[in-house]
Design a protein that fits this description.
Blueprint (H helix, E strand, L loop, with lengths): L1 H12 L6 E2 L4 E7 L2 E4 L6 E21 L2 E20 L3 E7 L4 E11 L17
Parallel strand pairs: 3-7
Antiparallel strand pairs: 1-7, 2-4, 4-5, 4-6, 6-7
Length: 129
Amino acid sequence: MRFELAVLIFAISINAHASEIFSDKVTLFEIKPQVCIVKKIGEPCTLETTVQWRTTEAMEVCLTQQSEVLQCWKDSLFISEKLAIILTQTTQVQLVDQHKDKLASEMLQVNALNPKKKRRRLRSAWSLF
């Protein structure tokens, strides 16, 4: 239980802000929270996020996750919206324009409470000498 609590506190305290902006048209791109915690790696996690972005001109913009379109907005300059994103592993979410050009991206992390493997002891716990 202490280990799980320590992992949870560590995951919350990490500044995992890994936003990248690739276009001058985008002045803000932010997804919060960026960390989802599951019991074991591979389990699905629904991350209730707040997505915010701002552009310098009104345009059609879509939010994608591994080439799957999550949400699109038409003729918008600023969006602040709640969106549920389902993750099974650490994933990059991208903001793309109508021509599929990448405008910005953000990394969403999946952390597990239980480690993937237990470490095997290299030598015996006992000795004759």
